[in-house]
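The following block was generated as part of the benchmark described in Methods. Ligand: flavin-adenine dinucleotide.
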Amino acid sequence: MSTITTDIAIVGSGIAGLTCAHFLSKKGKDVIVLESKSGSGGNIQSVVNESYLLELGPNSFLASSDGIWELIDDLNLNDEVCNSKEGAQNRFIYRDGQCQKLPTSLMEFFTTKLFSFKTKLLILSEPFRTRRGHQDDSVETFFTRRFGKELTNIVISSFISGVYAGNIALLHAKSAFPLFWNFEQKYGSMIRGAFFHMRKLKKQKTKRRKGLWSFKRGLQSLTNAIAAKLGNKILLNTSIKSLEKIDGKFHLGTNNQTIICDHVVLASPPGASSKILAAALPKASKILADIPLAPIAVVHLNTDQIEKIPTGFGMLIPRSENIETLGVLFSSKTFAERAPNGRELLTVFIGGMLNKDLINKSEDEIVEIVKKELETVLLLDRNHLQLDRVTKWKSCIPQLILHHDLKIKDLIEETETIDGLHLCGNYLTGVGLKDAVATAAEVAKRF
Ligand SMILES: Cc1cc2nc3c(=O)[nH]c(=O)nc-3n(C[C@H](O)[C@H](O)[C@H](O)COP(=O)(O)OP(=O)(O)OC[C@H]3O[C@@H](n4cnc5c(N)ncnc54)[C@H](O)[C@@H]3O)c2cc1C
């Protein structure tokens, strides 16, 4: 049994763990990152398959991800980063047998057939219906109160499928949409809140980036660059099984090593962190174990039917359409260098909390469903669809369900009872890269 000694041990080398390690190293701290797998980056996996660039996990990050921009500057990656293509702001929803564009102008709003005249009136009158909601509102209750059932079932449920692969009846509005929820609390209306928020941003006069971003050679450029800078401070194939504090020092156990340190940052997913804390903090361990994680399958396909793929980011499919596919990203319409000339790359998401068993089907069965449904929703000819890869994520997207905020408050209070123990990752305040990075940067600031 070998022993390693360090000041700070970070468990997990996903974007959260790597970010935390980077910012701590920048401050001159002694860190080690412990990763159970044979490679770093966690969910971020960019794979080149023939001439296609496949993102097996996340595809893009939001312009407002301040922490990611700081990493990009620190790592001199400004020449590697790429903005989404023109037209990528277009988003589509499949309804009534048609792929329909979400309105982005007043004219499109009045003419769209995506929702009825009654829903349009509900949207227009929202600023004048200044009723405030309840702390326990689900996403479904919150949006139905603001905009009615139709918009909630068509647009919001689709958006929830796209981001959370989740269930609008179970997700907690305050946790999943904190900005919108606060708009309603403060201004009595989401639209009013959004208006004042935008006005404030405009007044700040700082040049703000817009749209979606990635890297020319995929998101893994970011995690690879952080990992390269950390060098031998990352220990791969090192799965942490236990944590105890003995004489003021943490002892982290693997099968054949003990890591002795003053601080531990758990940047592992909630299920893994739960197991690590089982003996030391049973209550925290239970809270972590109870966070549901959605399963999802990602299917990459390419086609030469370029004229049939709309210019835009992608299409979402409301659950009411009885289609199993949750959404399709038009990956090569969104970012350059994803597919060779004359071909398009599609990234299809299927499964989620409302279709949990799908992940247990064979790859062939999943591809069969996807191809059949692409014939329906995009009118593609399956003989012109070529499969690149199927990726199964058995439990990956945290579900911020009812009382998530209170449970996380309890979790933090519990972990604070052990001096030197910290948590970061995408299950605390939000599920995106931006959130994972923000929680990691916040932990690094404590040192
Ligand atoms: C299919 C998919 C699509 C997505 N799309 C987007 C998107 O387009 N934009 C966006 O912003 N977000 C997206 N996300 C979410 C985004 O991927 C996550 O927010 C982010 O990657 C989470 O990073 P993390 O570091 O918190 O966790 P992870 O990436 O899960 O990293 C945790 C690490 O801990 C390691 N680990 C686990 N247990 C142990 C242990 N016992 N000992 C040591 N190490 C351990 C794991 O191997 C892993 O490397 C997507 C997620 C998925 C799955």
